[in-house]
Amino acid sequence: MTAPLLITATALALLAGPLGCFVVWRRMAYFGDGLAHSALLGVAIGLIVGMSHQIGMILIAIIFAITLIWLRAQSLLATDTLLGILAHAALSLGILAMALLGVEDAEVHDYLLGSLDSVNADVLVYVVLGCGLSLGILMRLWPGLLLMTSSEELAHAEGVPVRVYEFLLMLLLGVLVAAAVQIVGILLITSLLIIPASAARLFAQSPEAMAIGGSLIAGLCMLAGLPVASAMAVPLGPTIVALTVALFVLLLAGRLLVDRLKPAG
After folding, report:
1. Is 126 in contact with 54 (CB distance < 8 Å)?
2. How many other CB atoms sit within 10 Å of the CB of residue 136?
3. Residue 179 Cα to chain centre, angstroms
4. Residue 61 contacts by C-beta under 8 Å, 6 or more apart in sequence?
């Protein structure tokens, strides 16, 4: 297990915890899936234009978010329907573009499910800078995002630019997708957001505790998944997600046991 892998996993976990909380609170799992599915198109655009894959994925994430916000404002279709259309359209176009570019199936497979061999020093720079900057922005927006999550009307009354904050939250999710895609894989990135945050929610007493708990759980499972995937020669993304699910089940069982042992009344 190399230093770039350890540093990358730690940076991703620190950002995934608090971002995952908002995905859970605001019920944005479908958006996370759609954004992740669009990542392959970003990779293809990066190859065509000659820029880094991460920048290509972030650009596609911005286009995806703007398109969704505009279509939702037209009030013609439900949000989940729009997300389904956009997600599958982007994924299909991405797969077709990669095929036309002559990218080998094995490389596409690595993007879909993650790969131990995909993280190097160059990727590390993008991941650490992207996650660090995103975490700083998220902490700056934290009070307004919490207020917006509890009540958009109250947030408007307090002067919070709700639509701007909503777009920035989507953009931060796009940065996480771009940073995590080569480790966790396009098909499983949303799991890195919702499962650790949901597990932390079982025992957290405050939003901040849930965010910190989500980061710790994500980090623990990612760091444990690296040697397990390497030793068993299995895809990295599914290994990390399987460990995360196992930990969630254990914490859920513990919470149910605690509730049963509580005295009545």
Report:
1. yes
2. 10
3. 9
4. 35, 38, 39, 42, 170, 171, 173, 174, 175, 177, 178
Task: Find the domain containing 141 and state its range.
Answer: 3-190
Work out the burial of residue 62: count CB atoms within 10 Å of its CB; fewer than 13 is exposed, 13-18 middle, 19 or more buried: middle
List, for residues 230-240, the tens digit of each pLDDT value.
Answer: 888 888 888 98
Tell me the mean pLDDT in the region 102-117: 76
Q: Give the CATH number for residue 38.
A: 1.10.3470.10
Q: Is 130 part of any domain?
A: yes
Question: Is 222 within the bounds of a domain?
Answer: no
Give the residue carrying structure tokens 């398109």.
67
Packing angle of the helix pair 162-184, 189-201 (nearest 10 deg):
110
Q: How confident is the model at residue 118 (pLDDT cuts 50, 70, 90)?
A: low
Q: How many structural domains comprise the chain?
A: 1
Distance, CA of 175 to CA of 216 (rounded, Å): 20
